[in-house]
Design goal:
alpha+beta; 5-stranded antiparallel β-sheet; two-stranded antiparallel ribbon; 10 helices; globular
């Protein structure tokens, strides 16, 4: 999360006037992330009631337009109705969930409690595995579709732009991986599809102990194969500092996911390639942020650019060692 469009107290109060959420107590811009402007807002109920303090998150979208956001709002509504702990957008007095703030589309949602797991426990791994499987089942019949904008075609275009910035060794690694994935696509595997989260890293979840209290940032969600989404999650939740994968954590994730949704035989066959594809996708994404679209102003300079080498290490490890479901 981040702040590219600043707001002052009066502007926040004006926004809250269109909701029945009490009076503004405090607000804070959140200076981390790369795409949207976010604010934590605290309100207090009128003195005639219980003086309850409530917390919310206001998000201003810097790149997505209203037509694109309709997909995400309906997805969050869909998941909220099925009792997943997602930041369900609130409706204002007119019933509108999507509002305009300083010319930007915006959403106001409850702030979910909990913390991001830094070193996830096996209990937390078990919970995220089973929950991801439930999400895939819950979205397999979602009526809207959204294309995966960062698939193999995007990766190929990005690889060409990155050539001048990478070592000969890394250019060779990336070229070999892309060749592998293109060959893999020609096999036309019939993999189960759903609306996937696409970015279920630890920092997009909230826990209180072993209880999952929040699943955040669905703005990479798209209609794609479930196996890829699970591979994205495994690579992050099981990674170690030296670029290996913790096999105990991986086994916990695989077993907990598989208890809810059975892996197909084709998913089992493609799993080693899918782990590599997921690692390469985020390696390329981070390289693009670092070399092609680096922070260009003081506000963006506050954004933490994630280290691409973290995923290069995982990719090299996966090229040397094969894991199976």
């Amino acid at each position: 999360m981040s702040v590219f469009t600043p707001l002052n107290k009066a502007q926040i109060q004006t926004i809250l006037e269109d909701y029945e959420l009490g009076s503004l107590l405090s607000f804070q811009g959140v200076e981390e992330g790369v795409e949207n402007s976010n604010f934590f807002i605290s309100t207090i109920a009128p003195a005639t009631s219980t003086n309850t303090i409530d917390e919310f998150v206001l998000t201003l979208f810097e790149t997505l337009d209203k037509s694109e956001l309709d997909f995400f709002i309906r997805l969050l509504n869909h998941l909220s109705q099925k009792n997943f702990p997602v930041p369900h957008p609130l409706g204002n007095k007119q019933g509108a969930q999507l509002i305009q703030v300083k010319g930007k589309p915006a959403l106001l949602a409850p702030r979910l409690k909990g913390k991001h797991p830094v070193l996830p426990t096996l209990e937390q791994c078990e919970k995220i595995g089973s929950t991801l499987a439930k999400i895939h089942l819950a979205t397999s019949d979602f009526p809207l579709e959204r294309e995966n904008e960062r698939g193999i075609r995007w990766m190929g275009i990005a690889a060409n732009k990155l050539k001048a910035f990478l070592s000969a060794e890394d250019n060779k690694l990336l070229a070999n991986e892309l060749k592998l994935y293109r060959s893999f696509r020609k096999l036309n595997y019939n993999l189960p599809r759903a609306v996937i989260h696409g970015d279920l890293f630890r920092d997009n979840t909230l826990f209180i102990g072993s209880t999952l209290t929040g699943i955040l940032d669905f703005y990479n969600a798209c209609t794609f194969n479930c196996c890829f989404d699970f591979a994205v999650t495994v690579n992050d939740w099981c990674k170690t500092e030296d670029g290996q994968l913790n096999e105990t954590a991986m086994l916990t994730l695989v077993e907990s996911y598989g208890r809810i949704r059975n892996f197909t035989q084709e998913e089992k066959e493609v799993w080693p390639v899918m782990l590599r594809f997921a690692a390469c996708r985020f390696w390329v994404s981070r390289l693009v942020v670092k070399h092609i679209h680096p922070p260009t102003n003081k506000k963006q300079a506050l954004v933490k650019v994630k280290d691409p080498e973290e995923y290069a290490k995982i990719l090299r490890h996966l090229a040397d060692k094969t894991y199976h479901l």
